[in-house]
Amino acid sequence: MSTIQPLENGKYYHIYNRGINSDILFKENNNFEYFLKLYDIHIDPIAETLAWCLMKNHFHFLVRIKEVDENTFEKKIPPSQSFSNLFNAYTKAFNKSFNRHGALFERPFKRKEINTENYLQNIIAYIHNNPVHHNITEHPLQYPWSSYTTCLSNKPTKLKREEVIKIFSDLDNFKHIHQLKSNDLSIETFLGI
């Protein structure tokens, strides 16, 4: 059995997971909204978010775990525990709402360290193109449950939008890279399969 590496401060990670047996995680719009509300509570104190996408039966996040002195969370919970707390809180609410019991997410949640600028750029494009890859939309702009439109917006956000655009050099290149077909951005490349 392989050892699960802890999330380390100051490093970038692709965090992803799915429902047990690929079960549905988000049945209604308010499920997506509630998960994001819990994400703000549990993850914002310990990580900066660069990209995200919630699909019906899985999700993707690109985060940078904050340095210890940046982490304003009083209890100094380990980052992995903060993610577990998010999943547990959501599972309890989901189970209550849909009269079910037991685990909802696969364990342990998946994480892959991202350690090059090129990898960062590719994983952001992959995350945003996930609905295209799964034939839900033809362009990431059409999907409401990702950070793609937030990157194009000028509205206030906790998303590290300026940092994301800088990774692509500018907004025009950000849009251009995202126009690539999802088939060109193979999941195997990013997940090390």
Automatic annotation (TrEMBL):
InterPro entries noted in UniProt: Transposase_17 (IPR002686), Transposase_17_sf (IPR036515)
Q: Which GO terms describe its molecular function?
A: DNA binding; transposase activity
Q: Which GO biological process categories is it annotated with?
A: DNA transposition
Q: Which residues form the Transposase IS200-like domain?
A: 8-130
SMART domains referenced in this protein's UniProt entry, alphabetically: Y1_Tnp
Q: Report what the protein is called.
A: Transposase
Q: Which organism is it from?
A: Flavobacterium capsici
